[in-house]
């Protein structure tokens, strides 16, 4: 599949669903009473906003965040407020979609150092070895 050149897609609000859950971590008594963590769900498989290429890339990039049905789940509980966690979850989703919109980086080509560079390195090593051998005791005649 070839990437389609386009700007980063905007995901409509209707395609997202949010659930607020209790978070663990800092917050004192507040953490036991208020549901500040956000669970953002985005159905990648049925989204009309993404191209087939973007869907495939998103499946590869965020496979650990996806369900078997193709739903992307992002949990955000880094902050103490619901609004900040909501913004964090949406920013993470936007970053994932932006990354899926770009083509993957090219594969690294294996290279070898030139023969002259290897020889120069070995000459340097043997020269250093000779210097260290000369540091030994002087033999008496």
The biggest beta sheet is recorded as:
3 strands, antiparallel
Strand order of the largest sheet: 1-2-3
Whole-number mean pLDDT:
84
Number of helices: 4
Please name the CATH topology of the domain at 13-101: Double Stranded RNA Binding Domain
Cα radius of gyration in angstroms:
28 Å
Question: What does this protein structure show overall?
Answer:
There is one protein chain. Helices cover about 40% and strands about 15% of the residues. By secondary structure, the protein is of the alpha+beta class. The protein has a domain at about 15-100: Double Stranded RNA Binding Domain (2-Layer Sandwich), CATH 3.30.160. Helix 2 (about 50-60) packs across helix 3. The radius of gyration is 28 Å and the shape is elongated. The model has no long low-confidence stretch (mean pLDDT about 85).
């Amino acid at each position: 599949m070839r990437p389609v050149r386009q700007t980063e897609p905007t995901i409509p609000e209707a395609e997202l669903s949010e659930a607020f859950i209790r978070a663990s971590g800092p917050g004192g008594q507040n953490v036991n009473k208020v549901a500040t963590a956000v669970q953002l769900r985005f159905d990648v498989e049925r989204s009309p906003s993404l191209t087939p290429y973007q869907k495939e890339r998103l499946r590869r990039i965020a496979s650990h965040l996806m369900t078997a049905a193709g739903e992307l789940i992002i949990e955000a509980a880094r902050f103490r407020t619901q609004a900040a966690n909501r913004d964090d979850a949406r920013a993470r989703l936007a970053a994932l979609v932006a990354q899926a919109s770009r083509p993957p980086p090219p594969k690294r080509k294996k290279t070898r150092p030139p023969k002259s560079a290897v020889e120069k390195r070995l000459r340097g090593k043997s020269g250093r070895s000779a210097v260290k051998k000369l540091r030994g005791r002087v033999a008496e005649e």
